[in-house]
């Protein structure tokens, strides 16, 4: 019997030796939160994989034996376990926070932490990828609280806009790896200059209100803090294509080496996006690339990012006139674009915007000691381009030209085409020094010095009439310079369950520009501003999953380029000041996580259009003494079952200006200017500030690797100006437009839009993953406008509104397929 058993074992040994087993498990942090994308590595044989969105990993086809398994994730210490494998085994990892993580200090210096007493939303790479069908960056942020987005072309490709708590893009601070993206003069952030940036982004934090100290333009409504590609230990390749309505197409190729020799990595991306747009002649042709190389040392990381975008878009900046939208007999009453219209009713084919922006970033992180770490960055951005347009019967005097007489004919006007150029350079240095004095006490010292130079000039390319204009005639030039210096210090001190926060920033701005002096001469001028922005708050942890917080912050915001160039020192507006009070509650659990936030934003000298003309005759922005925003934000995500979840957010707010004096341009029957008509309002709504914003996403996974989401957005009515749609007493509305509600009302109607998103993943032996996606926008084909403008005036005693709207696309789709290797 013994001999028979021995023989049986001898026969079985080769089978056991050749048996293949698997190792699987979950990777979490010490709080039990999943770490999607964490890397699991077996050194011999060389095998690695990454955790999925739930932190789960699986490695199969492993022979029996003894193995060392390593789990790693950015911002956490590497954890190693040794196992003897004789069957399928479950091996979980719980990673602890690293005292220093390369590429971490640069981002955390300008970000809110888990327990910060501010309102913020974090979006991971996976959050962005599931919605990245080629639409511009604001559309990927549309489901964050208090956000409203719009598209000039109507379908999310091309020029887009974002408002946070009613504040437009010029009041939203945007940084990429801590480096400012906002234009130094206009203060807007034009994501169209970096198409498909989301494909190279690792994560984004959206802060609401003043938030933490950051670099660049003052955060007056919110901040968008973007971190681009970070370390990936394994090589990869991805090829993606999107096609959709309005001849939309996106092509993306991404490559990465993974970690080479334990020290080096290279990542790259190439993208192209094309779309005709929903609006006529609002096409987009966009190209971009992203290249990043990094060196990882024992205590330091050096990374070079080079990325660029080129855009050529049809101009749709003025929207669609109200009289067109209100005319249901017109076939194109929602897509009509009158820009570039010639007298013969044809359109100028080069009525386009052309711009290229190149970014260079050198990022350095170094661990000086166990308690002290440093990050610094050198950066340079080069922008150059123009927009070209046709002008019908434009006056020669607008171009510094005198009338030209030929025989008995004197030429005062001419059809012409012109290019308005911008050639600018932006460069500087940012830094942050983080000191962990004790486990319950830390300090951060950070700041930046940035310099901007911008050349604004215009050329006439063609005139219909012979007006004596030489080729490429330059009719204006404005050279501007701006220096922006800031330094901030932040500290956190934990006492028991309470954490105290203090944050102070000093910012100094020097701006040189071509503007009017006191004698109305257009000369080079200077302006210097000094701002002090203190912040303080407290967070109390009820337990490891729940906390309450309160904070107070001050923000200051400088006027923009037009405010300076279209005024004199006597009429020049003052900087804006904001006092921001925030308080809230946050909870995080396995089934539900979310929070509630109360805010009160008190403005001093907020800048708005009042309709008044300044001393140079321009309708520029003016300061209003007292205005405020107050509201409540609620957001949460509940896991109803293992397959079904619901995420939702809502903002209810009141946004008011007190004691506002408005002025309407006034003309007689012969269109001669009369004295403007004044209108005084005790309390009125701030323009573009809806009182209710609601977002919802219901996600369901009916099958493994497949999901469907129903996404909804509701935005209540918004006013196009600060009158609250109230007409001056004694002024009648023009009967010519009485039957056109778009012309009578100076507002955007409330809208409720629903989208459907489908996704399915396939794994094969040769392709790591194939993702098939479908996004159906505005599935119920709602007709609505998300943005607009109004120019009311009184003509011969009758109020006339010149309203322009940006209609958004009715039902449309985007379908994508991405191959990951």
Give the N-terminus to C-terminus distance in angstroms. 54 Å
Structural class: mainly beta
Shape: globular
CATH architecture of the largest domain: Beta Barrel
Count of DSSP-assigned helices: 7
**Count of domains:** 3
Strand content: over 45%
The helix content is: under 10%
Indicate the CATH topology of the largest domain. Answer: Maltoporin, Chain A
Radius of gyration: 29 Å
Q: What are the low-pLDDT stretches, counting only 5+ consecutive residues below 50?
A: 8-17
Keywords: Cell outer membrane, Ion transport, Iron, Iron transport, Membrane, Receptor, Signal, TonB box, Transmembrane, Transmembrane beta strand, Transport
Domain TonB-dependent receptor plug: 114-222
Family: Belongs to the TonB-dependent receptor family.
Region (Disordered): 559-580
Q: Mind explaining what this structure looks like?
A:
- This protein has 821 residues and is mostly beta strands.
- The protein folds into three domains: 17-95, Immunoglobulin-like (Sandwich); 105-228, Ferric Hydroxamate Uptake Protein, Chain A, domain 1, CATH 2.170.130.10; 236-820, Maltoporin, Chain A (Beta Barrel).
- The protein contains seven helices and 48 strands.
- The chain has a 22-stranded antiparallel barrel.
- A hairpin with a 2-residue loop joins strand 24 and strand 25.
- It is globular.
- The two termini are 54 Å apart.
- The model is unreliable at 8-17 (pLDDT under 50).
């Amino acid at each position: 019997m013994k001999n028979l058993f021995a023989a049986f074992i001898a026969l079985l040994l080769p089978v056991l030796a050749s048996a293949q087993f698997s190792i699987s498990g979950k990777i979490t942090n010490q709080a039990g939160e999943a770490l999607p994308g964490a890397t699991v590595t077996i050194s011999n044989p060389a095998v690695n994989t990454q955790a999925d969105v739930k932190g789960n990993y699986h490695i199969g086809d492993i022979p029996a034996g003894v193995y060392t398994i390593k789990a790693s994730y950015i911002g956490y210490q590497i954890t190693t376990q040794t196992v003897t494998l004789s069957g399928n085994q479950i091996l979980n990892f719980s990673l602890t926070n690293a005292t220093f993580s390369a590429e971490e200090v640069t981002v955390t210096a300008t970000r809110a932490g888990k327990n910060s007493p501010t309102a913020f939303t974090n979006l991971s790479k996976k959050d962005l990828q599931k919605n990245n069908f080629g639409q511009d960056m604001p559309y990927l942020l549309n489901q964050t609280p208090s956000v409203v987005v719009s598209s000039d072309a109507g379908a999310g490709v091309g020029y887009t806009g974002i408002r946070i708590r009613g504040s437009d893009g010029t009041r939203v601070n945007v940084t990429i790896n801590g480096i400012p993206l906002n234009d130094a003069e206009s203060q807007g952030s034009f994501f169209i200059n970096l198409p498909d940036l989301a494909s190279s982004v690792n994560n984004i934090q959206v802060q609401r209100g003043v938030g933490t100290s950051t670099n660049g333009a003052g955060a007056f409504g919110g901040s968008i803090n973007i971190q681009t590609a970070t370390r990936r230990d394994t090589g990869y390749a991805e090829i993606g294509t999107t096609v959709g309505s309005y001849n939309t197409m996106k092509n993306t190729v991404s490559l990465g080496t993974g970690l080479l020799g334990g020290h080096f990595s290279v990542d790259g991306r190439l993208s192209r996006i094309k779309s005709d747009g929903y609006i006529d002649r609002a096409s987009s042709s966009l190209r971009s690339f992203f290249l990043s190389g990094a060196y990882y040392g024992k205590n330091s990381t050096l990374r070079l990012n080079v990325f660029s975008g080129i855009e050529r878009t049809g101009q749709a900046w003025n929207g669609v006139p109200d009289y067109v939208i209100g005319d249901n007999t017109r076939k194109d009453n929602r897509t009509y674009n009158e820009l570039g219209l010639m007298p013969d009713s044809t359109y100028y084919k080069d009525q386009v915007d052309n711009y290229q922006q190149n970014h260079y970033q050198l990022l350095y992180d170094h661990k000086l000691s166990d308690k002290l770490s440093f990050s610094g960055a050198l950066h340079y951005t080069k922008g150059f381009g123009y927009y070209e347009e046709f002008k019908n019967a434009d006056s020669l005097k607008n171009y510094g030209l005198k009338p030209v007489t030929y025989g008995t004919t004197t030429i005062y006007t001419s059809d012409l085409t012109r290019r308005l150029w911008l050639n600018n350079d932006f460069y500087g240095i940012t830094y942050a020094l983080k000191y962990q004095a004790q486990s319950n006490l830390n300090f951060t010292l950070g700041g930046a010095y940035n310099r901007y130079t911008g050349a604004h000039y215009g050329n006439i390319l063609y005139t219909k009439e012979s007006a004596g204009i030489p080729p490429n005639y330059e009719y204006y030039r404005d050279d501007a310079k701006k220096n922006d210096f800031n330094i901030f210090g932040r500290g956190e001190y934990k006492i028991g369950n309470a954490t105290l926060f203090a944050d102070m920033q000093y910012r100094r701005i020097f701006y040189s520009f071509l503007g009017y002096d006191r004698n109305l001469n257009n000369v080079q001028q200077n302006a210097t501003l000094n701002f002090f922005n203190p912040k303080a708050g407290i967070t109390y942890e009820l337990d490891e999953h729940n906390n309450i917080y309160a904070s107070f912050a001050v923000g200051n915001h400088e006027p923009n380029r037009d405010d300076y160039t279209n005024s004199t020192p006597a009429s020049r507006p003052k900087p804006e000041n904001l006092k921001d009070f925030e308080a809230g509650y946050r909870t995080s659990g396995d089934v539900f996580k979310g929070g509630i936030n109360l805010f009160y934003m008190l403005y001093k000298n907020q800048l708005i259009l009042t309709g008044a003309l300044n001393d140079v005759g321009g309708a520029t922005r003016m300061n209003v003494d007292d205005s405020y925003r107050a509201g409540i934000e609620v957001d949460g995500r509940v896991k109803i079952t293992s397959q079904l979840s619901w995420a939702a957010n809502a903002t209810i707010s009141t946004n008011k200006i007190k004691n506002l004096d408005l002025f309407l341009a006034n003309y007689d029957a012969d269109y001669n200017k009369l004295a403007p008509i004044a209108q005084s309002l005790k309390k009125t709504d701030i323009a573009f500030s809806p009182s209710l914003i609601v977002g919802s996403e219901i996600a369901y996974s009916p099958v493994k690797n497949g999901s469907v989401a129903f996404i909804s957005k509701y935005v209540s009515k918004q006013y196009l100006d600060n009158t609250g749609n109230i007409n001056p007493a004694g002024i009648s509305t023009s009967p010519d437009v009485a039957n056109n509600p778009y012309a009578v009302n100076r507002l955007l109607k409330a809208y409720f839009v629903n989208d459907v998103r489908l996704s399915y993943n396939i794994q094969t032996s040769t392709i790591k993953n194939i993702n098939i996606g479908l996004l159906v926008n505005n599935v119920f084909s709602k007709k609505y406008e998300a943005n607009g403008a109004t120019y009311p005036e009184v003509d011969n005693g009758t109020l006339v509104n010149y309203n322009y709207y940006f209609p958004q696309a009715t039902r449309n789709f985007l379908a994508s397929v991405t191959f990951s290797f």
